[in-house]
Design brief:
This protein has 312 residues and is α/β, with parallel strands linked by helices. The protein contains twelve helices and eight strands. The longest helix is centred in the first third of the chain and has 16 residues, at 6-21. It is globular.
Length: 312
């Protein structure tokens, strides 16, 4: 990994995400259904985590874990309604540093240029929190709701967190769905490498960039969380050995046109998890566009219903 100025690295990640969602408009996105339901909170050792529970109480539970800098609302109403329509109760969780969960002040950030240099030299980076802590937050919410086992659906960094749970807490994981995520193996292309031209074009148009940033904020995107969450990803490093141990029935979904985590990331995840199923969608980037979402939901519904929770 080449050392970049910290602000350039974070800006590149932010802009790459904006590129992925750039074709969407507010007309395509709704969170009103989620917003109509109350938020709940748990506090474990001073860490407050917010969550929602939607759908039938007596159904099997699907826990949805969103990605870098994003609160639960980034899933969008259509995706959440689709999981519920397939016959599942949905638990939506705000990762720490997003939504209504605990936020950390900028003064708590590690010194990024130094941490990136340490990462380049093969040393452990310092973090405000780790991916394992975020996985623990999910388990804490499941404990509070008395959920013994759940279907875990994670997108991007949320997929990494879900993989962590499946590897470390297999008894709590009925199925795993890893969407546009990664093992962060050393040989895989680094984020944003395939979207340089699009990122440069966007950066040259500050007004357009500002509008997209405002749109992302309305969707539930928290840019301030990115430095801390990037460090958590870098600290975890190559998780291939842990991912190899996953025995949970797994569906890996990836976009052929993903500019942030290229398709090789999804392919490698599927290669490592025994008996997993890989589905690659044409016309899908690092998002779940309207044209592809019904097919994604269909694949997820098939996967979950093929692996029911005993006794429910």
């Amino acid at each position: 990994m080449n050392i970049q100025k910290p602000t350039k690295l974070i800006s590149t990640l932010l802009l790459a995400i904006l590129v992925s969602y750039g074709s969407m408009t507010l007309a395509d996105y709704s969170r009103s259904y989620m917003d109509s339901h109350p938020m709940n909170h748990i506090n474990t050792d001073g860490v407050e985590i917010a969550y929602q529970v939607l759908g039938p109480e007596d159904a099997e539970t699907a826990v949805l874990v969103m990605g870098l800098g994003a609160s639960h609302t980034l899933w969008g109403d259509d995706f959440v309604r689709g999981i519920i329509a397939a016959g599942y109760r949905v638990v939506l969780i705000d990762n720490r540093d997003t939504g209504e969960s605990i936020k950390y002040p900028e003064k708590d950030n590690p010194v990024l240029w130094w941490q990136l240099l340490k990462y380049r030299l093969g040393m452990n980076v310092s973090t405000t929190y780790q991916l394992s802590d975020m996985a623990g937050d999910i388990i804490d919410v499941m404990d509070a709701l008395e959920i013994d086992r759940a279907h875990l659906i994670g997108a991007s960094m949320g997929g990494m967190i879900a993989q962590e749970i499946a590897a470390e807490h297999p008894q709590r994981t009925q199925t795993l769905v890893s969407i546009m995520s990664t093992t962060w193996a050393e040989h895989l292309p680094r984020p944003g490498r395939q979207s340089t031209d699009a990122i440069r074009s966007m950066a040259d148009n500050e007004d357009k960039d500002a509008k997209r940033a405002e749109f992302m904020k309305k969707m539930g995107f928290h840019a301030a969380a990115i430095p801390r969450q990037v460090m958590a990803i870098l600290r975890a490093g190559d998780r291939s050995e842990a991912v190899k141990t996953i025995t949970t029935p797994t569906l890996v979904i990836h976009g052929r046109d993903d500019p942030l985590l290229t398709v090789e990331h999804g392919e490698h995840t599927a290669e490592l998890i025994r008996d997993s199923r890989l589905v690659i969608f044409e016309g899908m980037g690092h998002n779940m566009p309207d044209t592809v979402r019904p097919d994604i939901l269909r694949e997820i519904g098939k996967h979950l219903s093929s692996n029911p929770i005993a006794g429910l």
